[in-house]
Structures are given as C-alpha cells and as structure tokens.
Amino acid sequence: MALTTRRRALTTLGAALAGSIALPAAPTSAHERTHRPRPLWRAHAHNDYEHPRPLFDALDHRFGSVEADIYLVGDQLLVAHDPEDLDPSRTLDSLYLDPLAARVRANHGSVYRGYSGTLQLLVDIKTEGASTYLALDRHLRRHRRLFTTYAHGRVHRGPVTVVVSGDRAARAPMEAQTVRRALYDGRLADLGSQAPASFIPLISDNWTLNFTWRGVGPFPDAERHKLRGIVRTAHKRGQKVRFWATPDLAGPARDALWGELLAAGVDHLNTDDLAGLEAFLDTRRAA
C-alpha cells in the first residue's frame, strides 16, 4: 500500500501462543469499570498481523477493526501478506479466532469488557476466493456464538463480525448460503446495487483511485462533495465506508485527511500506526 509503513518481522509460535493467553485482568472496582477507556470503533488496523503482537497490539490501542490476510494451504488458513512470508505456525485460528474466543469468554460475551459493540475482523482472501471462503466458513463454525451470523434473511450480531474481502470469487458461495458467519466487503461499484446491507455491510475502496487530494493544501470542493455523497448513500442503506491507501506518514497531511474523513462520516480510518490513530481519535473524541 502506498505511503504506509510495514512491519516484516515475523513473530515466533511461542510469542503468538503467549499473546493468545494474555487476557486482560478483570477490573476490581466500580471506579475502574466506570473509567475504562472506551473502544475506538472507527480505528482499523491495516495488515494487523505485521505488528509484533497480532490482534493484541490493536486491542491494547482499543481498535474496533483489525485486518488479516489469509492463504489456503492444505486445510489450514495461514496469515501473511506475501506467499514468501507463510509460516505454518501463523494460522488464522492461532492468531485471531482462538484468542478472540478466549477473550470473549473472559469478558462475559464481549471483546471489550463493559462494551457491547462488535469488533470487525476483516479477512482479506489472497488465494482463490471460493475454495478459501468455504474453508474459512468451516473454521468459523467452530465458534458458533462468537460471530455475527446471517440466518434465513436476518442478521444476528455477535461479539465479532467477520467481513470477507480480497478475491472476488468468494462472493458466489457466500450469496448461496442461507446461513453464514461472515459478511461481504463491497466496493464503490456496489454502492446503490441490489445487494442489501445484510450481505454487504461495508463499502471499501482505494483512496488514490477515487481522489487526488493527499492532505496537502485545501481539499477540493468537488472531491469533498463526492466523498460526502458516497458516505450519505452508504449510510442510507445501512452500510459503512472505509478507504485504504490513505496517507499514513505522521504529519499535518495525514491529520488533515483523517479530519476530512471524520467530518464526512467515514466509518473506519485505515492505518499501520496504531498509537498515532489512537492519539488522533482521542484528541478529537470522534470514535
């Protein structure tokens, strides 16, 4: 992704397992329960698995959305950005699904203790979409009460909402299901289509392919109008909006662009800089 920082160092299996059991301590007083920092539901951890502690670094920074790229290798779903980074110990189950299940159990039904919102797990499919999605569906079924579920025309919200992105061939088997534990990540081309928000709850697209502004100088009026129109249309349909490939180097340009995204009502801000986005949202009380 343009203008983003990436972390290439892979954690060991021991670190992943240690992270998966590092549950937050239960609060011991009413004061702690009352003053617990609220989650930042609009914060999206792009390529979350490249952080030193996948998932847990994002949760420590109170993010409401995390992203994991997956490859189907045999019957395993391995997490990596590029094929050369594949490691049999780094599975979707060990890095995300099992730790989330344990955390929700420890927190009596929620990812963030005391908050009922749902954590978005954006799963970006890197191998052939149909077969990889069907394997993902089998893995999700192991945690039946963990995930938001679509069943016979209705959506039942769970502590974690899986949204499938990446290879577009995943769409056909998903649409054919009457019961599924994942929803679909649309594109701007899907905005205003017949697909309902119960199937496409999120519209994501590449900022650089749709806007020229990178945060330097004034935001062109025509582009501001376009952005707000996109958000307005999506929200009328009950859909959320996210852009990737936004500037991610700390500085005035990034802050200016994030500020315009917030002002327009964009639902998820994309970053590799967890601390930077946390501080930005806390300053503006906008999450």
Word description of this protein:
There is one protein chain. This protein is of the alpha/beta class and 287 residues long. Helix content is 32%, strand content 21%. The chain contains nine helices and twelve strands. It has helices at residues 13-20, 30-35, 56-60, 92-106, 129-140, 171-176, 221-236, 252-264, 274-284, and strands at residues 40-45, 63-73, 76-79, 119-125, 149-151, 154-156, 160-166, 179-180, 183-186, 202-206, 240-244, 269-271. The strands form two sheets. Strands 1, 2, 3, 4, 7, 9, 10, 11 and 12 form a nine-stranded mixed beta sheet that branches. The two termini are 24 Å apart.
| Helix vs. strand class | alpha/beta
Shape: globular
First-last Cα distance: 24 Å
Q: Which consecutive residue ranges, at least 5 long each, have pLDDT under 50?
A: 1-33
Mean pLDDT: 90
Question: Top keywords for this entry?
Answer:
disordered N terminus, 12 strands, 32% helix, alpha/beta, 21% strand, nine-stranded mixed beta sheet, single chain, 287 residues, three-stranded antiparallel beta sheet, 9 helices
